[in-house]
Design brief:
This protein has one domain: Porin. Helices cover 10% and strands 69% of the residues. The chain is built from two helices and eight strands; from the N terminus they run H-E-E-E-E-E-E-E-E-H. The chain has helices spanning 2-10, 165-172, and strands at 16-26, 30-44, 47-60, 63-77, 83-100, 105-123, 128-141, 147-160. Strands 1-2-3-4-5-6-7-8 form an eight-stranded antiparallel beta barrel. The protein is elongated and about 55 Å long.
């Protein structure tokens, strides 16, 4: 019973989530990674709304690109255990700069992207969770065809409310 009350406080109304994720991809002639810090507030029990900032780097052959995105996200958590599954939706306004090292030209373009999927938060203590998200992501830039596919992101989350900020500090340090 006590464990149920403790884990519920992590996703109760007026609690906060601060965290981030990392995605990596490698291949014979390509490499990519992205980092996505995020922060949000639970506006109802188990329902958080917040914002993401995303940085992407991609290298495919002679082409390198750097992308930056910003936008809202939402999550809904299920259950009251130490491992909580959740549904997630994200949207981002994006800008991307691609450089061709052979011709030494840069192309800058703007667009949007979104992700819909499922995730989990595995709490390792009262305030810290290791998180995973998988789902469908799609990006579309001006004057190009959109592209989408399976996305897998691993990261962490710090869950806290006004009453347990001191506990969070002690758990991290």
């Amino acid at each position: 019973m006590l464990m149920t009350l403790t884990t519920m406080a992590q996703t109760e109304k007026k609690s906060w989530l601060v965290g981030g994720g990392l995605s990596l991809r490698t291949g014979s002639s390509n490499a990519a990674f992205s980092i996505t810090p995020s922060a949000g507030m639970f506006i109802a029990d188990n329902f958080v709304i917040g914002g993401n900032i995303e940085y992407d780097y991609n290298k495919i052959g002679d082409f390198k690109s750097n992308g930056f995105g910003i936008g809202p996200f939402t999550r809904y958590y299920f259950g009251k255990s130490n491992t909580k599954p959740f549904a997630v939706g994200e949207f981002a306004f994006e800008t991307n700069t691609t450089k061709n090292s052979v011709t030494n030209t840069n192309i800058k373009t703007n667009g949007y992207g979104f992700l819909f999927g499922l995730g989990f938060a595995a709490f390792i203590n009262k305030n810290i969770a290791i998180e995973g998200i998988s789902g469908y992501s799609f990006s579309k830039f001006k004057d190009t065809d959109g592209s989408g596919g399976f996305n897998l992101r691993l990261g962490f989350g710090l869950y806290f409310n006004r009453n347990n900020v001191k506990d969070l500090k002690n758990n991290i340090l």
